[in-house]
Structure prediction request, 160 residues.
Amino acid sequence: MGETTLEGPRLGSSSAGDGVEEWVWEQIRRVAHRLYREAPAAADDAVEAAFAPEGGPAGYRLLVRRLTCGENEATVLACVLQHVEPPLPREERLRELFRLTPRESRVAVLLARRHSTGEICTELGISTHTARRHVEKVLLKLGVHRRPDVRRALLSCARG
Prediction:
């Protein structure tokens, strides 16, 4: 098969910093090279690759799948750049680190997942007043002042 050049639209600005776009295109070129050189007649929609975080920007995963379609079996590479959320610490760990009650640790996780007070009420089967009190206690015990800071605090303790 002849030389294949991959070109494409720019991915746009990335909050992950410089290099994300270059990394993505390098990975796509690598997969395309492997597919066209090493496995041109393989059972096509079974070839799949996922990349990250080694060598790539943290928090992203690139999925590449080879698809064959049509009578002349044209091959297409389907690529998806996926933002991967880092895992939050377990509730037991939060209770140990921040001296949270079981209910407060559950509220902390829900806050980190960006749930509203109403969603917390529904999830836990509690009143709005009770949910607000739990939120206040979580903020106080984590030493933060705003809801978005809960996520940052939990992710930083998960890393460290």
Remarks:
- The first helix runs from residue 20 to 38.
